[in-house]
Design a protein that fits this description.
The complex is a heterodimer of chains A (382) and B (289). Chain A is α+β, with helices and mostly antiparallel strands. Chain A has 3 domains: 72 residues, ATP-grasp fold, A domain (Dna Ligase, domain 1, 2-Layer Sandwich), CATH 3.30.1490.20; 125 residues, ATP-grasp fold, B domain (D-amino Acid Aminotransferase, Chain A, domain 1); 144 residues, Succinyl-CoA synthetase domains (Rossmann fold). Chain A is built from 13 helices and 18 strands. In chain A, α10 crosses α11. Chain A is elongated. The mean pLDDT of chain A is 91. Chain B has 289 residues and is an alpha/beta fold. Chain B has 2 domains: 111 residues, NAD(P)-binding Rossmann-like Domain (Rossmann fold); 151 residues, Rossmann fold. Chain B has 9 helices and 14 strands. In chain B, strands 3-4-2-1-5-6-7 form a 7-stranded mixed beta sheet, with helices on both faces. A 7-stranded mixed beta sheet of chain B has the order 9-8-11-10-12-13-14, with helices on both faces. In chain B, β6, α4 and β7 form a beta-alpha-beta unit. In chain B, α3 runs parallel beside α4. The two termini of chain B are 19 Å apart. The mean pLDDT of chain B is 94. Classes of the chains: A alpha+beta (382), B alpha/beta (289). Chains A and B meet through α9 of A and α4 and α5 of B.
């Protein structure tokens, strides 16, 4: 789960990491109020969860409270990559001497967290790594004793600092690690982390992604997520509420399958034959009829869907149960779009019989079924 | 033969009385797996499917001296269960539970490394050495004993490919799922090493997916070591968009990192045959062995 910049900065400030003074506004007049309490010039930043906000015009400057009102109004009526801007964060414009980068993320191969720093900041770390790999400093964190003060000082020196600034910067890095661990962050970064004109350090922007699997320890965030204040589409949200994994894509073939890997391979196979999947949906193992009904509802609520492809490999999941679920769903949801069903595995014969008796054709081969549904989608779903 | 587990493996089931634990214990017993004890705190002294239940792993170990454990307990408590197994000398732990918090998994793996224990998962369908032992939730009938080692990041996709191989008379030595969570125990390289020294294994099928760089590292390992056995790979997620999580927590493309293209290219460069569709795996294998 991604946190908004204002949420991330509020948490950082609580841990004693210097951040620019600022406030949140959901209307232009509120923005003026916030700006007048700060000392203009100010920066007005759209609060959206998509990357590339700056380039999309989501960050504007204002030299007076009145101007802050005008630019806030502009941002609040804007969409960034299709996402409407609901709030803006207004903060003091700080005097920046140098932009840096510091973040902590996971390293799968080493089964650990890794701290990453760079003396160049302000752009995506992947970009920094691609352009100037020698400037990226990595430190694998030993899970047994964590990221300690000496690690933080070591990174500060590698970032090119000396004297008092080593401990000054080190404290900021160490505190960020504490925030990351306490929040169960899978990614936490200050980008840019800045050296100000007076030689101090501050987080000019902050990004936190909370580990979804740890949300049970962070009910306040989970609540916000389920209330709809997130980057998720309505279908994705509905799926999340029902424990289904759904991702909206931009094609026209609705896909339902069991198991993440199989569904991914199904999308690939559709694409291989020239089709365009409308979504990823994994109903998971077992797949009781209730879940099949929900899955169909979610997939069909996407108006772009012309045809449906249900790909079930019954391992522990029983094909006869899935078949009954499909029939029940068909009746309850009122499916009018053409369906191609591939059903193999445990109790396959019984499953096929149930569907064939109801006039639904069932295929055995994933390739054949994929080709069939691609054809249908190209004929406009007839 | 095969790797990690065989007909002599003696296993305990942690979380044996839950719906999944109980159901799969029955199936594993039917497969011939030696399940010597089950653990459910508070249910000690009873039994299920003829397997005695204990409150703690310590007690189970005094009575049954197992060398492996399979874990079905809920995500919030799964790392704790795995630590209990490790502390009681169990060196092979299969964690079926999905969605374990990263922080918990990181702590667990560090301790497992010190204990020189093998962790399969979390979020794995488990491991099976056909006709000998199954510690997992995979459907037994799709596997057949043979010479192909399989290692995968996914469940049902593995079944799809294994079933296709079995149909084509290509049996398996051992088949294991690394797990779909972001932090897992075994990785591709660990598994490739084990398959390299297993006499039964003549070729390896590696099933990867988008996200992370484990496949790229495996490709580099295969090239650097001049891996002694033929390898066929399949990568799921060619059609996945950037920044979206495709079901598995680990299956996410960020920027250019973790894409299917990057992984496929790494394998091709390492001389590994890459299948375009799941069912092409069998054809490629037939050509190689």
């Amino acid at each position: 789960m991604k946190l908004f910049e204002y949420e991330a900065k509020t948490i950082l400030a609580k841990y004693g990491i210097p951040t620019p003074q600022g406030g949140l506004a959901t209307s232009a007049s509120q923005a003026m109020e916030v700006a007048s309490k700060l000392k203009p010039p100010v920066v007005v930043k759209a609060q959206v969860l998509v990357a590339g906000r700056g380039k999309a015009g989501g960050i504007l400057f204002a030299s007076s409270a009145e101007e802050a009102e005008t630019v806030a109004n502009k941002l609040l009526n804007m969409q960034i990559k299709g996402i409407p801007v609901k709030s803006v964060w207004i903060e003091e414009k700080i005097q920046i001497k140098k932009e840096l980068y510091f973040g902590i993320t996971t390293d799968r191969f080493n089964q650990s967290y890794v701290a990453i720093a760079s003396a160049v900041g302000g752009m995506e770390i992947e970009e920094i790594a691609a352009k100037t790999p020698e400037k990226v400093i990595k430190l694998l964190i030993n899970p047994e004793y964590g990221f300690r003060s000496f690690h933080a000082r070591l990174m500060a020196t590698k970032m090119g600092y000396a004297g008092n600034q080593i401990s000054e910067l080190g404290r900021v890095l160490e505190r960020l690690y504490c925030v990351g661990m306490d929040c169960d962050a899978e990614l936490i970064e200050m980008n840019p982390l800045v050296e100000t004109a007076d030689g101090k350090f501050a987080a000019a922007d902050a990004r936190i992604i909370i580990d979804d699997n740890a949300l049970f320890r962070h009910q306040e965030f989970k609540k916000r997520l389920l209330e709809g204040e997130s980057e998720l589409s309505p279908q994705e949200l509905e799926a999340m509420r029902n424990d289904l994994a759904y991702v909206k894509l931009d094609g026209n073939i609705g896909v339902i399958g069991n198991g993440a890997g199989l569904v991914m391979a199904t999308l690939d196979t559709l694409q291989y034959y020239g089709g365009k999947p409308a979504n990823f949906l994994d109903v998971g193992g077992g797949a009781p009829s209730e879940k099949t009904v929900l899955a169909l509802k979610i997939v069909l609520s996407d108006p772009n869907v012309r045809a449906l492809f249900i790909n079930i490999l019954g391992g522990i999941t029983r094909c006869d149960e899935v078949a009954r679920g499909i029939l029940e769903a068909k009746e309850r949801v009122g499916v009018t779009k053409p369906m191609v069903i591939r059903l193999v595995g445990t109790n396959e014969e019984e499953g096929k019989r149930i569907l064939t008796d109801a006039g639904i054709h069932v295929l055995e081969s994933m390739e054949e079924a994929a080709q069939r549904v691609v054809e249908i989608s190209k004929q406009g779903g007839k | 033969m095969g790797i990690i587990i065989d007909k002599n493996t003696r296993a305990i089931v942690q979380g044996i009385t839950g719906t999944q634990g109980s159901f799969h214990t029955k199936l594993m017993l039917e497969y011939g797996t030696k399940i010597v004890a089950g653990i459910t705190p508070g249910k000690g002294g009873t039994e299920i499917h003829g397997v005695p239940i204990y409150d703690t792993v310590e007690e189970a170990q005094q009575k049954s001296s197992a060398d492996a454990s399979i874990i079905f307990v809920p995500a919030a408590f799964a790392a704790d269960a795995a630590l209990e197994a490790l502390e009681n000398g169990i060196k092979k732990v299969v964690i079926i539970t999905e969605h374990i918090p990263i922080k918990d998994a990181v702590g667990l793996m560090a301790i497992a490394k010190q204990a020189k224990a093998t962790i399969v998962g979390p979020n794995t369908p488990g491991i099976v050495t056909p006709d000998e032992c199954k510690l997992g939730i995979m459907p037994a009938h799709i596997f057949k004993s043979g010479g192909v080692g399989m290692v995968s990041r996914s469940g049902t996709l593995t079944y799809e490919i294994a079933a296709g191989m079995t149909r084509n008379s290509l049996g398996q030595s051992t088949c294991l799922g690394l797990g779909g969570d972001p932090i897992t125990g075994l990785n591709f390289i660990d598994t490739l090493k084990m398959f390299a020294s297993d006499h039964q294994t003549k070729a390896v099928v590696l099933i990867g997916e988008i996200g992370g760089n484990l496949e790229e590292l495996a490709a580099k390992y295969i090239a650097d070591q001049k891996y002694p056995k033929p390898v066929v790979a399949f990568i799921a997620g060619r059609s996945a968009p950037s920044g979206k999580r495709m079901g598995h927590a680990g299956a996410i493309v960020t920027g250019k990192a973790g894409t299917a293209e990057s992984k496929i290219e790494a394998f091709r460069k390492a001389g590994v045959s890459v299948a375009g569709k799941p069912n092409d795996v069998s054809d490629l294998l037939t050509k190689l062995i």
